Amino acid sequence: MDFKLNTLYEEIGGADTIQHLVNTFYPKVYADPDLAPLFEGDIEEIKRKQYMFLTQFTGGPTLYSNEFGPPAMRHRHMPFEVTPTRARAWLRCMKEAFEETDLTGDAAEAFYARLQQVAGIMVNTPD
User: Which UniProt keywords apply (predicted)?
Assistant: First the structure.
C-alpha cells in the first residue's frame, strides 16, 4: 500500500487559503489597540513575511527559511513586548480571520491549535 499523507498546508487549501487568511488578519491587527503599537512599517512587507511563515509552518514550501533562515520566531520577537494580553488579542484576531475566511474543519482546528501554542511561546513580558 502506498500512503500519501497530506500536509496541513494542503488540507487547508494551500497558498490561496493562507493568502486570504493573511489579508483578512492584518487589518484586524492594525486596528487592535493592544497590537497596533507592535506593528510598525509596511503592512505589505509584514503580510508577505507572515504568508511565507504560515506557508512553511503548515508544511508547505520553506519560503520563510529560504529567504530569512530558520524562523526562530520567539527570538525574532524578543525586541517587542509580547504580553499575555497581546497574545490573546493576536489569537482573537486570528480566530476572527479564520471565521471570515471560512477556514473550518479538522485541519483548521489543528492549525489554530498550533497557533495557540506559538502565541504562548511568544509571551516575553508580563501584563
Answer: Heme, Iron, Metal-binding, Transport
What letter does residue 37 receive in the DSSP assignment?
A: G
pTM of the entire predicted model: 0.92
pLDDT digits (tens, 9 = 90+) for 86-120: 999 999 999 999 999 999 999 999 999 999 999 99
Residue 7 lies in a domain: no
Backbone angles phi, psi at 118, to 5 degrees: -60, -45
CATH code for position 43? 1.10.490.10
- Quick check: 93 and 39 in contact, CB under 8 A? no
The C-alpha atoms of residue 122 and residue 87 are separated, in whole angstroms, by: 8
Domain count, the chain: 1
